[in-house]
Amino acid sequence: MHDVAVIGGGPGGASAAYVLAKAGLKTVILERDKFPRFHIGESLLPLTRHLWDRLDLSEKLDREKFTLKYGAQFVSSDGAIELAFDFARGTNDPYRIAFEVERDRFDQMLLDHARERGCEVREEAGVLDVSLSETEPCRLRVRRGGKDETVEARWVIDASGQSSLVAKALGLRVQDPKHRKIAVFTRFKGMERRAGRQAGNIDIVLGNQCWFWLIPLRDDEVSVGAVGNVDEWKASGTEPEAFLKLKISQSPYVAKRVGAAPRCGDIHVLANYSYWSKRFVGPGYTLVGDAAAFLDPIFSTGVMLAMRSGEMAARLLVERHAAGKPWRASAFGAYQKQFDRWMRIHFRMIDAYYSPGFAHLFLNPSNKLGLVDTVVMLLAGDSDMGFMGRMRLNLFYFLLWLNGKIGFAKDPRTAEAALPHG
Q1: H or E element that contains 113
Q2: How far is residue 57's CA from residue 113's CA, in Å, rounded to a whole number?
Q3: Beta-carbon contacts of residue 9 (< 8 Å; ≥ 6 apart)
Q4: Any residues with CB less than 8 A from the CB of 312 and at least 6 apart, and which?
Q5: In angstroms, rounded to a whole number, what is the distance separating the alpha carbons of residues 148 and 126?
Q6: Does residue 395 contact residue 410 with C-beta atoms inside 8 Å?
Q7: Whether the predicted pLDDT of 129 surpasses 80
Q8: DSSP annotation of 370
Q9: Is the Cα dihedral 54, 56, 57, 62 positive or negative?
Q10: Rounded CA separation 397/352 (Å)
Q11: How far apart are CA 206 and CA 271, in angstroms?
Q12: Pairing state of beta strands 125-131 and 120-122?
């Protein structure tokens, strides 16, 4: 029997498994796919770098020479207005640098890292169902190589991503009706790039009933995606490729950047139904990353929250084990509270992003009272702001609400470019 069975070998699962295996706990990862495999979510956040240090990953990642990311650019659909947010703004922290990564390679590195530390990894092992308990062994029915087998473990960490196997089985998942989005994306080769320090920055482009990401990767490739409303896409009756082409053609800035660059990847579609689980911990299990909750990808929080929650869930188990204390769901209230707080601070900014009039305030930035610096901190991945940071964010949201009432900030875009992006 294993101490812990981890469902899913992505960033959250691999991070948890590494911590557990390092502490000497018998751990198995049950991964449905065969790595390497394609995955979206290429843009990482700088405040994950401290976590990479704790997971002994930094040297490996630096050797990989992924594209360096110093910040983010917010651009109007016509390109006339562009705001650059440098993650180093207002700080001397040398860690305010991130990477743009090919997730197939990045995820393979993390999975191998856990394997090298002693974690057993079973790929192409799909978990069909789970019997959970904190007083008896948990049992997982797994299909591998066309045969069913049973895996027993003292505890289960569900890092199955948007499949959220445990949350669905227990009826814990609740969808957010406000954010019914769909992402259509691919890669192009040879697109125009910025020069110097901003060459690796992600572009967030406010389009017509959609927003775009443009993520510079290695080998002169750029990931390009359009996130729009599910209902609009369904009503259009178009295939994903035609939908993406249409959206690109409606944005002069994106159309110019893509230019005649050839497509070098498949067209992918991902439904971005934001959801939240009623609880993240229960008898015999912990949910991490997207298995617990999924946020709109606008601020690139997915990998960061998956790895942070995976590490935290594993460390709590390790601490209980080292102290000789039983593993009980009631002992993990701190995990529920912390992860819930992380999700809420980012979810609130996503709600603001899609609210009417967001561009009026956001594209007229003022650093009075440190508001811009605080927003940049959040964009960099600071989920644990102190009291003053939280107060400044609340002031930002209040001003956004107030502007909707009295209109003190006007949209700086032209009428043609001032279109809703959500």
Answers
A1: helix 103-116
A2: 8
A3: 17, 29, 31, 35, 107, 111, 114, 121, 123, 159
A4: 335, 338, 339
A5: 9
A6: no
A7: yes
A8: G
A9: positive
A10: 7
A11: 19
A12: unpaired
Residue 49 to residues 95, 282, 335, Cα–Cα distance (Å): 6, 30, 21
Q: Scan for tokens 């797994």, then name that residue.
A: 142
Q: 39: how many CB neighbours lie within 10 A of its CB?
A: 20
pLDDT digits (tens, 9 = 90+) for 340-376: 999 999 999 999 999 888 888 888 877 777 888 888 8
Nearest to 205 by CA among 223, 226, 188, 189: 226
pLDDT tens digits along 387-404:
999 999 999 999 999 988
Cα 389 versus chain centre, distance: 22
The whole-angstrom separation of Cα 113 and Cα 26 is: 16
So what's the pLDDT on residue 90?
A: 65
Distance of CA 212 to the CA centre of its chain: 16
Q: How far apart are CA 287 and CA 293, in angstroms?
A: 9
d(CA 357, CA 420): 9
For the cut 90, the answer to whether the pLDDT of residue 67 exceeds it is yes
| Lookup: tokens for 409 | 């900030």
